[in-house]
Amino acid sequence: MPRSSQQTHARIVDAAHVMFWRNGFVRASLDDIADQAHVTKRTLYQHFRSKDDLMAAVLSQASELSMQRLRRYFDQTYDTPAACLDVLFGDLAKWAAKPRWTGAGFTRVAIELADLPGHPARMVARRHKQTVEASFVAMLEKTNVPSAVERAREIMLLWEGAMTLTLIHADRGYILAAAEAAKRLLENRDAISPSRKHRAGHISPALNPEAQVPPGYGEQARGIRGHRR
C-alpha cells in the first residue's frame, strides 16, 4: 500500500474510533466517519468493504494499544499479586475519571450487537477479553497463586463488572470495591476451587435453582418449561 494510501487508511480508522466512541457503534454512520476523516465516502469504501469491516479494524487497533498498556503492568515484577492488582485497578480508576469517559469499547460493541454473535467486531472483542484474562492467569502463575485459572476468571468478572457499573452509575467507588474484593480472593488461598466443587458433586445453594423450594415445585416448573417449548 503506497504511503499516501496508508496515511488515508490510518486517518479513516482514527476518525472511526472517534465517532464510534462518541456516538456508539450502531449510531455512527459512514457519512459521519468520512466527514471526520476528510475523505469522500467512495474513498472510504476503497479501504473498507463495509462498516462491519471498519468496526473490526478499529477494535483490532484498540486491542493492540490496550494490551501494550496492560503488558507494562503485567510484565513487571511484584512482591505479591495484590500489589499488581492495586496498580491495575488504580490505573482503571484514573482512566474512568477522564471527562466523558464511555467505558470499554469491547464491552459496548458486544452489547450493541448482542443479537449478532458472529459479527467480526464481536469476534475481535471476544479475543481481546480472552487475552486480558490469559494475562491475569500468567500474572497469578508467576506469583505462585494456586488455582490461577479459576482465580483469574473471578478477577476478570470483578474487572468487567467494575467498568460496567462505573459507567452506569458514574461512581468510581465500584472500581475500588472490585480491587478490594479481588485481593480478598487471593488471600483465601485455601478455598475450594469451583472446578473441584463440581467434581465433588457440590452445588452451592445460591446457585441451585431447586434449593429451598416446596416439594414438587421443581417438577412443576420443569413441566411448564417443557410446555413452552
TrEMBL record:
Pfam families: TetR_N (PF00440). One of its GO terms (molecular function) is DNA binding. Keywords: DNA-binding, Transcription, Transcription regulation. PROSITE patterns: HTH_TETR_1, HTH_TETR_2. This is Uncharacterized protein. It comes from Pseudorhodoplanes sinuspersici.
